[in-house]
Amino acid sequence: MSEKIKRGIILMNLGSPDSTSTKDVKRYLDEFLMDGRVIDSPYLIRTILVKGIITPFRSSKSAEAYSTIWTKEGSPLVQITYQVQRELQKIIKEPVEVAMRYGNPTMKFAYDSLAQKYPDLEEVVLLPLYPHYAMSSYETAVVHAEDVHKEGKYPFKIAAIAPFYNNPDYISALVESIKPHIKNDGKHLLFSYHSIPERHIKKSDITGNHCLKVEDCCNKPSAAHAVCYRHQCYTTTRLVAEQLGLPAGSYSVSFQSKLGRSAWLTPATTARMEQMPKEGIKDLMVVCPSFVSDCLETLEEVAIREKENFMEAGGETYDFIPCMNTQQSWIETIKKWFLNVDEPVTA
Ligand SMILES: C=CC1=C(C)c2cc3[nH]c(cc4nc(cc5[nH]c(cc1n2)c(C)c5CCC(=O)O)C(CCC(=O)O)=C4C)c(C)c3C=C
Ligand SMILES: [Fe+2]
Ligand SMILES: [Fe+2]
After folding, report:
1. Which residues are noted in the entry as Fe(2+)-binding (predicted)?
2. Which of the four pLDDT bands, split at 50, 70 and 90, describes residue 2?
3. Which residues fall within 8 angstroms of residue 97, CB to CB, at 6 or more apart?
4. What mean pLDDT do residues 131-147 have?
5. pLDDT tens for residues 246-264?
6. Per the omega criterion (within 30 degrees of 0), is the bond before 105 cis?
């Protein structure tokens, strides 16, 4: 008799449009930006903002950006997540599924596939592919997964792996992805993280009086750090810099992909690209640790557009460091977390 499979894993990523047509991009952006954890205005204002202003104007520009990175298989982010699935499936016997927060494949599709193919499943481990906690990434993915799970009355329970920004295996895998680019030739290493609104940092603060309220908040001990995106980005940077032995001043942090006019985390990557050559930084490497898979924000924004900004401002060399993608140590790390799901991944 065949062995009963009791556990499975779902790799959860953000998602992409189904194609680069303006129609598909608009549908994707509407779903994404109507998420109250992404644009957190009251529903009516959000609807006017998103459907009346942002997506009618942004969709065609965004579709053009997607066309520059699209492959014959589709979106890099979705395809890389499938590649991770295949690599992981080679080294674990339990089923591995993929789900996107927005677009396809949906969370429901992943749960349904598992439930149909594996009737003995008792637990599904969710891995949101975000190293850092933000209400607009990790939180919305997990809440959505819980909602769909409740609605579908699936026979298995679910357990989510926590943000892994300081997990030693994640840090080592990230370091391994950066190391081949470091030649000890004086190049500056920029850690460019996805930005978020400052308002979100304050909203997520579980103490209500620490984040962006206390001077140098991210470096002062606080329970708020368990869900503080900026603290977690700084921590990843510090741990990677320590492991690479980078001297102070040879690396820095910036935040990319701002949308709209409100205050987002600074310094902005675009502003730094213009300033760095004037400060004497002419040779640059850029790594994007808020993403584990390459996507629009790394391949188009950082590898193409920000490079142009840096070179136009007087930069001389620019190395974009790809995400971990299907790197073997990253795949082995996911396997380890899955097999030890009851142990915390965050220190
Ligand atoms: C790293 C995690 C992410 C956080 C946090 C995040 C916050 C956030 N994003 C937007 C708006 C957009 N993001 C877009 C693309 C995009 N964002 C992430 C990840 C995070 N976003 C990824 C991986 C991607 C790429 C998706 C892909 O298909 O490759 C886009 C769409 C593209 C565009 O038109 O620029 C938007 C819009 C907000 C408003 C936000 C926090 C409030
Ligand atoms: Fe984003
Ligand atoms: Fe903080």
Report:
1. 194, 297
2. low
3. 8, 9, 10, 11, 85, 110, 113, 114
4. 98
5. 999 999 999 999 999 999 9
6. yes
Mutate to test the pocket of ligand 1, among 79, 293, 296, 300 (most ligand atoms within 8 A of CB): 296
Q: Angle, to 10 degrees, between the axis of helix 168-178 and the axis of helix 328-339?
A: 170
CATH topology of domain 7-164+328-339: Rossmann fold (3.40.50)
Return the ligand number nearest the Cα of 193. Answer: 1
pLDDT (0 to 100) of residue 132 = 98
At residue 139 the predicted structure's pLDDT band, cuts being 50, 70 and 90, is very high
- The rounded distance, in Å, linking the Cα atoms of 286 and 8 is 35
Taking residue 329's Cβ as centre, other Cβ atoms within 10 Å add up to 15
Say if ligand 1 is within 6 A of residue 203 CB. Answer: no
Say whether 188 counts as a known binding-site residue.
no
What kind of fold does domain 168-321 have according to CATH? Answer: Rossmann fold (3.40.50)
* 243: pLDDT strictly greater than 70: yes
CA distance 48 to 46: 6
Helix (H, G, I), strand (E, B) or coil at 116: helix
Pocket test for ligand 1, best of 13, 136, 191, 203 (most atoms within 8 A of CB): 136
Tokens of 37: 């954890």
Q: Compute the distance from residue 231 Cα to the ligand 3 centre, in Å.
A: 5
What residues does each domain of the chain span?
Answer: 7-164+328-339, 168-321
Q: Which residues contact 72 (CB under 8 A, 6 or more apart)?
A: none
Dihedral angle over CA of 308, 309, 314, 319, nearest 10: -60
Indicate which residue's Cα is closest to atom 14 of ligand 1.
Answer: 297
d(CA 21, CA 60): 8
Q: What is the pLDDT of residues 30-81, one digit of tens each?
A: 999 999 999 999 999 999 999 999 999 999 999 999 999 999 999 999 999 9
The DSSP string of 134-201 is -IIIIIHHHHHHHHHHHHHT-SSEEEEPPP-TT-HHHHHHHHHHHGGG--SSS-EEEEEEEP-BHHHH
Percent of the chain residues past pLDDT 70, beyond the cut: 99
